[in-house]
Amino acid sequence: MRTALLTGITGQDGSYLTELLLDRGYAVHGMVRRASSFNRSRIEHLRADSEIYGNRLFLHYGDLDDTTTLRRVLVQTKPDELYHLAGQSQPGLSFEIPESTVREAGTACLSLLEILRDLDNPPRVFLASSSEVFGTPEVLRQNEETPFRPMNPYGCAKAFATQLGRVYRQAHGLFVCNGICYNHESPRRGESFVTRKISAAAQRLAQGSSEVLELGNLDSYRDWGYAPEYVEAMWQMLQLPVADDYVLATGTATTVRQFAEAAFLAVGLRLEFEGEDSAEIGRDAGTGTTLLRVNPKYYRPLDPARLVGDSTKARRDFGWSARTAGSEVAVAMVRGEGSARGDTTLG
Predict the structure, then answer these.
(1) Which among 182, 285, 305, 325 could disulfide-bond with 270, CB atoms 3.0 to 4.6 Å apart, if both were Cys?
(2) Which CATH class is domain 3-187+225-252+306-323?
């Protein structure tokens, strides 16, 4: 039986990846923070299964800055594969808590790599990177050769961690794959993320809620994919004969406005917009009721330019390509609202 260790197992990606690995016959160990003891709903269905939990699924307490515990768990579990997914993962929030973001997304990765280089048989490693490393790219579609130009503390920390992965792969012979992941969403995403905020509000409004959804820049572009498809690529990378870096993206640009329109339409509400910039609102085309308004407090101090990824290399090397993109993701999230597990922003 192959063994995998996941940091961030209670997060969106961690929960989907755990299911995938268990389906493939792995024993799965997950690192969880003490503070996450009340927020494990995304994996609660697995913990409640007596045939899985305690037999093929095991949880270990430990924080990213607790290197002693990380080392102990790695030595005890001897994983074949390590998926490093944990950390503060909101670019906008990183402006408010830059130091903790950099510690979790950047320097914690350095500590982990230092532990791994001391092991006699280090595992194969997947490091979760982000499209935010590109920030303001000079090309319309970014790939593995696009220079890093991050525009927020989160992107800076991820650029640091991604470069470290390359250095430790080349200098110390570790099998490290960087997955440069563009936005990937699901019903398990926390409501502080704009996609889940939209899908959850659309469902409530369709059921008669009188709230008004408040959003920031409606014309901000993102390359939105579907999280269950992205964890497939994470696993595929670690099955390759040689470690490398890969962009994971749909190649499709979708605005926040388009995402919201698709989500609302999926519940039978058609948005019509009026006004502009900070005064823009979205009304129900049938009743004229205000459903959505722009609130400048949700604008980022700096917003990346059009981030759209090119996954040609992943398609060529291991046959991966996104199957769900943009508005299709919005529809999938709305339809999955009833089965969403958890609401945390931290992995």
Answers:
(1) 285
(2) alpha beta
